[in-house]
Design brief:
This protein is mainly beta. It is built from one helix and eight strands; from the N terminus they run αββββββββ. The chain has two domains: 30 residues, no CATH class; 116 residues, no CATH class.
């Protein structure tokens, strides 16, 4: 039976005040530990940049979820990358594909992908993918293959001229 996880091991909260040791010998170790806590807390925050180039998201993914090349389970956190694709207008009852320029190979793992579309004239916006509970033709599918991000619509959504697709992924097992 494994030991229960202590959620405080995974929190990035840094206390405002901590009692420092009185002796100079103990103070050095205390300061080093405080710098480590601060660095870890800062580095594990989600980064707010959404750019059209590959960049770190500030997220760390589960260690040990996949097997390493030698057959052992890796205990290292995996880096999550982010890229935003300026998709442009949605299609008129069909599929539109836009290149993502991400290396999509055996090491690629999609973590999350989402999009939003805006009609700047009618002042309407919605998230993608979209499922209409009343009419299936109004649904909008969002997919990705080795080359492109694909959006498929059942009706004309071309008035939604602003669409950005956010892709978060890993490039390591």
């Amino acid at each position: 039976m494994s030991a229960p996880l202590d959620s405080q091991n995974f929190e990035s909260y840094v206390p405002v005040y901590d009692v420092a040791p009185e002796s100079m010998e103990d103070l050095r170790g205390f300061i080093v530990e405080q710098f480590k806590r601060h660095a870890n807390a800062i580095n594990l925050r989600e980064i707010g940049f959404f750019l059209d180039q590959e960049l770190l998201s500030g997220k760390a993914f589960i260690p040990g979820a996949n097997n390493a090349a030698g057959g052992s389970t890796s205990q290292a956190y995996r880096t999550v990358l982010r890229k935003v694709i300026n998709f442009g207008a949605l299609p008129n009852a069909g599929t539109k594909s836009v290149p993502h320029e991400i290396t999509f190979d055996a090491n690629f793992t999609l973590v999350q992908m989402f999009a939003s579309a805006t009609d700047p004239v009618a002042f309407i916006a919605f998230p993608l993918p979209y499922a209409d509970p009343i009419n299936i033709l109004n649904a909008v599918a969002l997919t990705m293959d080795a080359t492109n991000v694909n959006i498929t619509t059942g009706i004309n959504y071309s008035s939604f001229t602003r669409c950005f697709v956010v892709i978060e992924y890993m490039q390591e097992l």
